[in-house]
Amino acid sequence: MGEKVELTVELRTVTGKKVRGLRRDGYTPAVIYGHDMDAQSIMAPSTLVSKAVKTAGKHQPIELTVDGKKRLAMIKATDADPVKHQLRHVAFHAIKQNEEVETEIPVVITGTGETPAEKAGLVVLTGATAVIVKALPAKLPDQLEADGEKLAEIGDHLTVADLKVPSGVTIVTDETQTLATVYEPSALQAANEEAGGEAEVGDEAAVESEEGGDTPQESQAGEDKPGGKKQFEPKGE
C-alpha cells in the first residue's frame, strides 16, 4: 500500500441544488455511508479532496476525520464536470481495518513498449486494465504486475493468472481473463479492415452528481463493497 492518505471533512446541511453554492465557495460535497452507520452528508475544501482522490483512487483506504472522529473509508464513486474536469461529488464507503474488502486494483504489464514482441516489430494489444481483489485494507496493493518479458511471439498472451499477487491478497476476477496478446501487424490490420474499422478495448462508467442526484440509484443498488457487489448506498447529498 502507498503513502497514508488523510482527509478532514465537515458535516453539512446544504443539499440538493443548493450545493452549487458550496462548489462556488471552493468546497466539494460528499457522502459517507456504511453498514454500521447512518449516511452522513459531508464536505471539504476542493483542493484537499482532489488531492486525496488522486492519491488514493478507488484502491487505497483514506483516513477520514468526520466531526472529530476518525473513520477508515474507500472511495466508492466520483463525479466530475465533463468540461472543467473538476470534482462535483464523492461517495465514501466506510470500512473496518480488520475486515476484508473487495475493490478494483490497476494492472500493469511491465516493460510495455519494450517487450520482446514489440522489439521484434509485433503488436501487443492490452485487454483488462484492472482486476477485483479481496484483502484487508492494509494489504491492498497500489497495482498488480504481469511480466511483459513473456510476450515474445505471435499468439503469446498474459492472463489474470500471470499476475504477481502479494501475500494476503486474493484475486476475485476470473483468472482466464486476458491482459495482453501478441499479434502480427498485417494480420491485425486485415482483421480491422474486415471488421470495417478500428477495434478498441475498454469502457467507461459515469456517475451523476447532485446536480440531478448523487450516484445513480440503479447503479448503487448493484454494489455492496468498494468495487464489489450488492450493497445499500444512500442516494442524495
Mean pLDDT: 84
* Stretches with pLDDT under 50, minimum 5 residues: 201-225, 227-232
Count of extended strands: 15
CATH class of the largest domain: Mainly Beta
Order of helices and strands: EHEEHEEEEHEEEEEEHHEE
The CATH topology of the largest domain corresponds to Ribosomal Protein L25, Chain P
- CATH level-4 homologous superfamily of the largest domain: Ribosomal Protein L25, Chain P
CATH architecture of the largest domain: Beta Barrel
Helix/sheet category:
alpha+beta
Strand arrangement across the biggest beta sheet: 1-3-2-6-5-4
Distance from N terminus to C terminus (CA atoms, Å) equals 30 Å
Number of domains: 2
What percent of the residues sit in helical stretches (DSSP H or I)? Answer: 10-25%
Principal-axes geometry comes out as: elongated
- Largest sheet data: 6 strands, mixed, barrel
How many H/I helices?
A: 5
Task: Explain how this protein is built.
The structure is a single chain. This protein has 237 residues and is of the alpha+beta class. The protein folds into two domains: 5-97 and 204-231, Ribosomal Protein L25, Chain P (Beta Barrel); 102-195, Beta Complex (RNA Polymerase Alpha Subunit, Chain A, domain 2), CATH 2.170.120.20. It has five helices and 15 strands. The protein has helices spanning 19-24, 46-56, 116-119, 185-195, 217-220; strands at residues 5-11, 27-34, 37-45, 62-66, 69-80, 87-95, 101-109, 123-126, 130-135, 144-146, 157-159, 170-171, 178-183, 223-224, 230-231. The strands form four sheets. The protein has a six-stranded mixed beta barrel. A hairpin with a 2-residue loop joins strand 2 (27-34) and strand 3 (37-45). The radius of gyration is 20 Å and the shape is elongated.
